[in-house]
Design goal:
Elements (H helix, E strand, L loop, with lengths): L1 E6 L2 E6 L3 H9 L15 H10 L5 E5 L7 H6 L4 E6 L9 H8 L4 E6 L2 H7 L8 E4 L9 H18 L7 E3 L1
Parallel strand pairs: 3-4, 3-6, 4-5, 6-7
Antiparallel strand pairs: 1-2
């Protein structure tokens, strides 16, 4: 649920995560979830899912690390979750396999490599309804410039794949 509050001339939207969904996510301890800054991997997908409605949608998680958000993208109804991470972990992630056991109707994949390059080279593999990227920036480039570049890249993919559904880039 989204609530809007007025503060003087300004309106601020707050996303309220349903308590039942949040408690389910908190009780799911098999994913070894750690807090990451202001939000945790639990809260971010739940808030985005509540705001956008992910039922039956594909989420492309850019910079997914081990796939910490995967279970909660599925919990919000995503039918497919595509993760892209440039670094290769020392140990393979078991999160996609565990998430698939809990959410068998959701398809989970992680690709390794630079997502700017992968999205340009294989747009059909990374076609999604929602693109999520958190705290990204290319070397020697500001966050704003990286965001603008990624937005242009997703718009290119949108036209290349000739899809009519809207795309969201959340960061």
């Amino acid at each position: 649920m989204v609530k809007t509050k007025k503060f003087g001339k300004h309106e601020i939207e707050s996303i309220i995560i349903p308590e039942k969904r949040f408690r389910e996510a908190l009780s799911d301890s098999s994913y070894d979830i750690q807090p990451l800054g202001h939000r945790t991997p639990i809260e971010v997908p739940l808030a985005i899912g509540e705001y956008l409605g992910l039922e039956g949608k594909t989420v492309c998680d850019l910079g997914c690390s081990y796939g910490y958000h995967f279970p909660n993208w599925a919990r919000c109804g995503a039918s497919s979750v595509i993760g892209v991470e440039k670094s290769t972990p020392k140990t393979p992630s078991s999160i996609p396999q565990k998430a698939h056991k809990s959410f068998p109707s959701t398809d989970f994949k992680i690709y390794r490599g630079n997502y700017f390059n992968l999205l340009q080279k294989y747009p059909e593999k990374f076609e999604a309804d929602v693109y999520y990227a958190w705290g990204f920036a290319k070397k020697k480039q500001s966050f704003k410039d990286s965001y603008v570049e990624l937005k242009k890249l997703i718009e290119q993919m949108y036209f290349q794949c000739q899809r009519s559904n809207p795309k969201y880039l959340v960061s």
